Every structure is written in structure tokens, then in C-alpha cells.
Amino acid sequence: xxxxxxKMSKEDENKKRQETIDKAIETMNKGxxxxxxxDRFKTLLDTMSKFHDYSxxxxxxxxxxxxxxxxxxxxxxxxxxxxxxxxxxxEQAF
Length: 94
Hints:
Elements lengths: L9 H27 L2 H12 L5 H10 L9 H8 L12
Helix pairs in contact: 2-3
């Protein structure tokens, strides 16, 4: 089966390219707005408000490990205030 490769004019090429770009932008905007309206985003903002001293990466790790977390304590805090020792084997921070 032979293909008919018709050469497009520059104007048609630019028009088609702009249509493709506009469609991509519309799709991305819809995705962003859908995410901003989702419960997942609201949960992220809630977690970020609880742990505002932590970086975004650490906040995401907290959210991943325990979405209902309300407080965190570091290694020294566990030793001094709670009289607890964290296991060495297999235990890691975040």
C-alpha cells in the first residue's frame, strides 16, 4: 500500500504544532487542578503544617510511613526523655 506523503506548508505545520501544544497544556492544567482538589493533596498540606520544620522530602517520608503521625522524636530524644534505646540492627532514621 503506497502512502501519500503530502508536504505541509509552514503555516499548516505551525498551526498543527500549536494545536498539539495547546492540547498538552490543557491536559496538564486539568491534571494539576484535579490534584489540587484531591484528598491526597489536602493530606499533604495537613502533614506539612504539622511538621513545618522538616524538609519536603522528610515530610513526604513521614506521610508515607505513617499518614496519621502527629509528633516525631529524634534518636537523642528517645534516649534522654523516654529512656528508650533504638535497635541498631536494621533500624534507620526516616
